[in-house]
Amino acid sequence: MRKLGEKLKYLRKQHNWTQEQLAQHLNISRSQISKWENGELLPDVQSLEKLSNLYEVSIDFLIGKHTTKKELLREMNLLYQTDRIDEKMLDIIDYFKQNPDMEEMIYLLAQLPAKKRKHLETIIITLIQEFSDAVK
Predict the structure, then answer these.
(1) Distance CA 24, CA 76 (A)
(2) Cα separation of 109 and 116, whole Å?
(3) Which pTM value belongs to this model?
(4) 4, 59, 60, 64: which is deepest, by most CB within 10 A?
């Protein structure tokens, strides 16, 4: 229970909300938020769902269940209705998560017209390949 409370407090502070502000978002009392954060009380299922939606995290994350790569791959493939997402793709996603500037640049690249995008993609691939060869 303690870990859930700590996680809820952390997420609330990440949003720069007071307990009162969070309580207003969830339409509950501030004292209930306090009890959750202190580990005196567990949120009910509806509250966990609201917290999950509000913070844009899974309920599994809130309750401290760690998803394995295998489970994550299964869920991603179900979500996107494909079987083409593999561990390599998860590593790429993780890389972008750790490098937000790169993520933003790739997003901008994807927004370009196809002809310009192809030209830049060729340059980027060549640059990365040459750098990779140079550091081997």
Answers:
(1) 33
(2) 9
(3) 0.54
(4) 4
